[in-house]
Amino acid sequence: MPVATTTYLGPARVLELRESHVQVELPDGPTSATLATGAYRPAPGDLVLAIGSDESGYYVIGVLQGTGAVTITSPGDLNLIAANGAISLVSTRAVALKSPAIRLHANRLDVAARAMFERCSTAYTWIKDHFQLRTGRMRTTVHDSYHVSAERIVEKAKKDVTIDGESINLG
Known about the structure:
Blueprint: E1 8-18, E2 21-26, E3 29-35, E4 40-41, E5 47-53, E6 57-65, E7 69-70
């Protein structure tokens, strides 16, 4: 007499992650399931959607409540293209870019930040037409020499101007 098997489709709590398998808690108890969620790697405590039976095996096919990471890996180039729209990256903690080289090409680049820190061994900036800096206060510290070359230099102060040096050469 054939034995009827029941296929389970429903939520499962992730207990442990192992390579391409995950230990999940089903209503009948814990079992091992194969990950079929693509780039999503569940974390213990996540609530996933599982399908399967004891005979055919179980598969995690979706995420109901997750905290695990999504990793997109490409053996070659990876292109994200929004042919008629925008691409938006949003994070509540941080966005990190790491590469031997990063190139930005844009007609306009807007940067807005509460604080900005830049650290470089060497930095070069070429401005073709106009450069303007607006600041509340400014301090420049140079450890070796400071050289300014211009066709014309105009500096104005509403109050005192102090020049302090071992010698000051004019002309």
